[in-house]
């Protein structure tokens, strides 16, 4: 693992996060459609809200999931904000809250799904860079394995090879980005929300199976963790929504 770049003391994760934000922000601004209801300045501000609320959401969920440790070690608010980890599902929810704030707290209200259809793919692209940062840092590692996929993690037992679940999810996010960007550009439908919910369903599908390989996988109901149960619920709801939209599009 390479938690610091070139032994400089600069966090690899922070660098990957910064690169992911810059690349995604650049692409989301230059690709704004001419007839889009939001100008480039508005998209830039929307993305800043997404980053801000995404970080807060990831921090908040991490603290909830590790509350017993927080109580036992007596962490302060400062410790929680600056030294705790991140929970990616909380980050995704935070990003969506950022989009809601952007759409609702304006003089001219915007359609959430219209904005989400455009910006959500780039959010996934940013998260793929973050997952590579997790791989370099060694966090979010998988269970022990003797397969050729195995890699070392500085957080696992010494000499134990683990599944590189960070890379699995990174590739899944890249694939998801290209799929829903293709749908956004060439899909034929009459209602907003298709791109967003297709992207959500693809993410839930891959994340569900990758969860089985993660070291943090803790069964809650049978073989399934609490996160997987939540992913299944969101996956089913997303597919139902997409099916209803496409059905209405065919009728019209």
Structure overview:
This protein is mainly α. It is 66% helix and 4% strand. It has 9 helices and 4 strands, in the order ααααααββααββα. It has helices at 12-30, 40-65, 67-73, 77-82, 88-104, 112-137, 165-186, 194-211, 226-251; strands spanning 151-152, 161-162, 219-221, 224-225. Strands 1-2 form a two-stranded antiparallel sheet. Strand 3 and strand 4 form a beta hairpin. The longest helix has 26 residues, at 40-65. The chain is globular, with a radius of gyration of 19 Å. The N and C termini lie far apart (54 Å). The mean pLDDT is 87.
String of helices and strands? HHHHHHEEHHEEH
Radius of gyration (CA) equals 19 Å
Major sheet, described briefly?
2 strands, antiparallel
**What is the approximate shape?**
globular
Strand numbers in spatial order across the main sheet: 1-2
Low-pLDDT residue spans = none
Q: Which percent band covers the strand fraction?
A: under 5%
Distance between the termini: 54 Å
Number of helices: 9
Number of beta-strand segments: 4
Structural class: mainly alpha
Summarize the amount of helix as a percent range: 55-70%
Mean pLDDT: 87
